[in-house]
Write a structure and sequence with these properties.
196 residues, alpha+beta, 6-stranded mixed beta sheet, two-stranded antiparallel ribbon, 9 helices, 10 strands, 18% strand
Length: 196
């Protein structure tokens, strides 16, 4: 089933859009490796619409479900507070706009949203970066890496897989902050490397 057809059907269950790598890969003409959707609903509203199941991260607005045999990760639109431990935000606020949600994403090319009618929503010039072969952090690269140093490894993976060059500030921050990787849980690093 094509992505737009799937989105159309899934919207009969939960109002949603595709986001991130799902949209990026779709626009590149590739089969998306993962299906990531977002919904404007709150976690409580989302649970009420989903089939009965175990959703252990529902209070964080994060759901993993299988729809017609297809695994989907569904997240409620949200903004996040500061990251005090390099992995977890201090607070979450749900029911925000697409643009507000986009600011919590890592790279411009991963902050693209696609609705069931094929409309793309781009708040950070992600389409231009994708066309020009650039990998760029949203906002300050230093801040984004300090929030979650695993983003260094994600940047390296995306640059290699998609044949992208680092935007200047992004490249410099990745070089300067490599030492932060030593603070990460080795299991997190192993998990990220398994995606290469």
């Amino acid at each position: 089933m094509g992505l737009l057809s799937l989105l159309t059907e899934f919207n009969e269950l939960v109002p949603s859009l595709a986001v991130g790598g799902t949209v990026r890969d779709f626009l590149l003409g590739e089969e998306p490796a993962d299906l990531d959707f977002v919904t404007p609903l709150t976690p409580e509203e989302t649970v009420a619409l989903l089939p009965k199941g175990s959703y252990p991260f529902a209070k964080y607005g994060s759901f993993h479900l299988v729809y017609k045999g297809i695994p989907i990760d569904l997240t409620c639109l949200r903004i996040e507070g500061e990251y005090n431990d390099s992995r977890h935000p201090s607070f979450l606020r749900f029911g925000v706009s697409l643009e507000a949600d986009s600011w919590r994403r890592d790279f411009t090319i991963n902050a693209l949203y696609l609705d069931k009618d094929g409309n793309v929503y781009d708040f950070h010039q992600g389409l231009a970066d994708l066309k020009n072969g650039l990998l760029r952090f949203i906002g300050s690269p230093d801040v984004r890496i300090k929030e979650d140093p695993l983003r260094i490894m994600r940047a390296e993976r995306f640059a290699k897989r998609l044949n992208l060059a680092y935007e200047a500030k992004t490249g410099q921050a990745i070089k300067d902050l490599q030492g932060l990787l030593s603070k990460l849980n080795p299991d997190k690093i192993k998990m990220e490397r398994s995606k290469e």
